[in-house]
Amino acid sequence: MKIPIALTIAGSDSGGGAGIQADLKAMSALGVYGASVITAVTAQNTVAVSAVHEMPPDIVAAQISTVLSDIEIDAIKLGMLFSPAIIAAVADELAQFSGPVVIDPVMVSKSGDALLQDAAIDALISQLLPHACLLTPNLPEAARLLNRTEAKSPREMIAQGRQLLSMGPQAVLIKGGHATGNKCTDVLVQADGAVDTFEAPRIVTRNTHGTGCTFSAAITAHLAKGQDLANAVELAHTYLHAAIVGADRLSVGRGHGPVHHFHGYWT
Questions:
Q1: I need a labelling partner for 123 at 20 to 30 A (CA). Which of 165, 183, 220, 267 fits?
Q2: 3-state SS of 106-147?
Q3: Whole-number Å distance between alpha carbons of 113 and 43
Q4: Quick one: fold of 5-148+206-249?
Q5: 152 is catalytic
Q6: Is residue 208 annotated as a catalytic residue, yes or no?
């Protein structure tokens, strides 16, 4: 029996809560083998990102081509890409991949530090969004991609999701974690007109570092396992909620700690 395999293309988080590290943890927890391509190395903990080192674009391209030439990848997740040059290298290599691609447009860390250069936004839109089976922005990211104010309601989230569809992705999941209220609402809008809403009670915790990375990685893992998109999002949503519920059982750092990726295995 073939083991499902997913590839994450993203930055490294030395604190272990987000980026490549979170992606591989989520994939492993969900029974998927994770391969990785590192686009940048961050000096990061739960409090701040103190430095970012961009990988040379040719090394990023070489990582992707080498993995795809040997390993049968079922789904790919894109996270922190940082610069126009990295985006161009990734876009060129993705031309040889026909499976599902999930793009998490990572722009700012939980501590507020920039993880995507301003000049890279146009490149992200023009070169990568047409490759995406799913785009997963949070409320600030969706607003920045559209050059609009943040959506204030599920109806506005749906409207912005439809606007983002015009940029090329087959579906858009706008995540409501940055909103307020007792419930967290995520909205999935697909090109065929289907709209799905996913709700969960909002958990009061500061330990939410890596939630976006974890959510998109979990969706990618379920796509690698053969789930259709709506089911993959629903299963990943359930997994992430439980990981946030379990986050306070960990004691990592003095700032925004990570979610508990392995909540189902150990405490």
A1: 220
A2: CCECCCCCECECCCHHHHHHHHHHHHCCEECCEHHHHHHHHC
A3: 12
A4: UDP-N-acetylmuramoyl-L-alanine:D-glutamate ligase (3.40.1190)
A5: no
A6: yes
For residue 8, indicate whether it is catalytic: no
Q: Domain ranges for the chain, please list them.
A: 5-148+206-249
Can you tell me the distance from the alpha carbon of 217 to that of 30, in angstroms, rounded to the nearest whole number? 10
- The tens-digit pLDDT sequence of the chain (267 residues) is 899 999 999 999 999 999 999 999 999 999 999 999 999 999 999 999 999 999 999 999 999 999 999 999 999 999 999 899 999 999 999 998 999 999 999 887 666 677 788 888 999 999 999 999 999 999 999 999 999 999 999 999 999 999 999 999 999 999 998 777 889 999 999 999 999 999 999 999 999 999 999 999 999 999 999 999 999 999 999 999 999 999 999 999 999 999 999 999 998
Type of residue numbered 51: A
**Strand duo 183-190 + 5-13: pairing:** unpaired
User: Of 15, 17, 79, 212, which is the active-site residue?
Assistant: 212
Q: Provide the token pair at 151.
A: 């959506």
Is residue 175 among the annotated active site residues?
Answer: yes
| Distance between start and end Cα atoms, the chain | 31
- What residue type is 172 in one-letter code? V
Q: Is 176 a catalytic residue?
A: no
Of 35, 80, 18, 21, the residue nearest 55 (C-alpha)? 80
